[in-house]
Amino acid sequence: MRKSTFLLPVVVVLIALGLSSLFIVDEREKALVLQFGRVIDVKEEPGLAFKIPLIQEVVRYDDRILSREVGPLEVTPLDDRRLVVDAFARYRITDVRQFRQAVGAGGIATAETRLDSILRAKTREILGSVSSNDILSSDRAALMLRIRNGAIAEARDLGLEVIDVRLKRTDLPEANLNATFARMRAEREREAADEVARGNEAAQRIRAQADRTVVELVSEARREAEIARGEADAQRNAIFADAFGKDPEFFEFYRSLSAYEKALRGGNSSMVMSPDSEFFNYLNSPLGASN
């Protein structure tokens, strides 16, 4: 009885120690076995593994491809046109021993902070060596590849492999953006003013041409009218001359009547002249007196 009472705690302790010496490495991770902070073993293959209880500990790291957002970063291209750039990187831990030695107990958080510094420095360096048009163009894959290649060597010292770097956003800073919008607005207003001026010039030219055409048409019409009127008057005079030439006495009679009609009008018209005036020659003639 006493023996079994003594053995039971020992068995429990042995079982606990045995279980604590076992650990499972997941296929999505890598594990380090540490002893007093030093790396004793690296477990990269999935499955069951062993460690010394109480003395050794296991630290696990993600073996999958990880993503890291790089916050907004101002860069100055060759043309001194400042830009704000957002980027992200994809990376993975390739050498967990090197990774542990580089970042210590800080793990992923410390590694990503140092990776941020690498990516930001390389982004400034690469984008600062080209013009803003190259950065803003749709074909900027070469720039992203240069940033990635530049970051690979430095990231390798952290036990990391940079797989890809992408530029998400490339915009002007807020102050520059407002200035650019103002400049674009002024440019468009200038172009609009030029178009209005050209339109007014064209309108004036068309209006002047139309006025000239009106004057020419009216002048031509008046000239033709005067010609027609002159021809009609000539024809009328010819008819009158022919008619009067056939009967001179009738011509004398018609001319006298026309003169009387124009001179002796109704109203307050009055004339003072001698009775033997030539004006009354027809009335004083025997033909006029008989009428």
TrEMBL record:
SUPFAM superfamilies documented for this protein: Band 7/SPFH domain (SSF117892)
Biological process according to GO: proteolysis
Ranges of residues in domain Band: 20-184
Keywords: Hydrolase, Membrane, Protease, Transmembrane, Transmembrane helix
Pfam families per the UniProt record, alphabetical: Band_7
GO function term, MF aspect, one: peptidase activity
Annotated membrane topology: Single-pass membrane protein
InterPro entries in the cross-refs: Band_7 (IPR001107), Band_7/SPFH_dom_sf (IPR036013), HflC (IPR010200)
Subcellular location: Membrane
Similarity section: Belongs to the band 7/mec-2 family. HflC subfamily.
Job description of the protein: HflC and HflK could regulate a protease.
Full protein name: Protein HflC
